Amino acid sequence: MAPSGDLAASAVISEQNGLQRLNGNNDGRSLQMPAKGPATVLAMDIAVPPTYYLQETYPDYLFNLCNLNHKEALKAKFKFLCDKTGIRKRHMILTEEVLKANPEICTYMAPSVETRINMSVVEIPKLGQEAALKAIKTWGRPVSDITHLVFGTTSSIDMPGADLVLSKLLGLKPTIRRVMLYMGGCNGGAAVMRVAKDLAENNKGARVLAVCVESTILGYLAPNENEIDELVAAALTGDGGVALIVGADPEPNEKPLYEIQWAGETFLPNTEHAIVRRLTRAGLNSHLLKHVAGVIAANLPKFLTEVREVVGGPSWDEMFFAMHTGGSALLNGVEASLNLPKDKMQATRTALSEYGNLQGASLLFALNEVRLRSEELGSTTTGEGWDYGYLLGFGPGVTMECLYLKSCPR
């Protein structure tokens, strides 16, 4: 039965009032309606601590600092690992001055978790603030236009969380809708993007600030013969934060970078013990399956084939790639398993070389390098000239996460 004239008129008035509220002050209390188009990265930028360490001199620095130069065999093994990483330098919050003031952090298995947490709850939001301010400046709209915040980190644990601290640092509205993602591991940045995508597409007019920050503060451990996994982590990891503005239906004054057309993940059966991190009295300890990079590389083609069955898209050699900077062994394995030409991973290799393994933030640093490389090459798109690309994260589970991106004209 058709509605009566009065009821139909009432419905129209109600809908108009809802749209007026939606298009007005979007303060978290307005009517929620879906957007028309896909979520789009409208701006992004990174931040790193000012102190950095060159990889070629890092073994001498670390063993001197920890008073371990008498362990010559262990130092030689660590130097071998550092030389094989593909890293030139890494940025860290933990400077020599900070470590000397807190010797428990660089004393093997000394109780230090309280010191580490007290430090991380301050430094993680600050690094997020720096990245966010740069992204917001590029975006060109006022901070009051941000409606949602998604914050991801494996490097801080506290309540209230880093999301609330960052909200206050940036002066976001009290009605900002926040999501805090802890312990996402090395695919954490992909999860942050996936959540931001869903928020942007299901809330018309939403502008989501998506932030991922990682640091070595919780996981910094002095070298020891019994902790080879930690030795590998010490040779790879660095500190950094990345921030993105994500929203659908870009306004004329916004300059889109990438459309997020699909996001999904899978985990490999019987691999839940391949990547494990546990918080102990001595910090966040790591345990890695020796050949985990090979496991990921061997299973990635099947996963991406399944993704292609859902989203379509061109062949892999006609796409751009940005992925977790887990080390040169991982990049080499993925290149070989997908039969990719060397230049496909150049942006990711640059991110690895200049920043190291940034855990959850790694793949977003790699995407930022794709953006910058596109400018340097004078490419027609933000995807190094290609129209479509994959953003790949790998973490505990073993979890493989993929976002299918469409680049935008430059």
From TrEMBL:
It comes from the Eukaryota. It holds the Pfam family Chal_sti_synt_N. Residues 33-250 form the Chalcone/stilbene synthase N-terminal domain. Residues 259-408 form the Chalcone/stilbene synthase C-terminal domain. Keywords: Acyltransferase, Transferase. Belongs to the thiolase-like superfamily. Chalcone/stilbene synthases family. PANTHER family: CHALCONE SYNTHASE, HYDROXYMETHYLGLUTARYL-COA SYNTHASE. This is Chalcone synthase. It comes from Sphagnum troendelagicum.
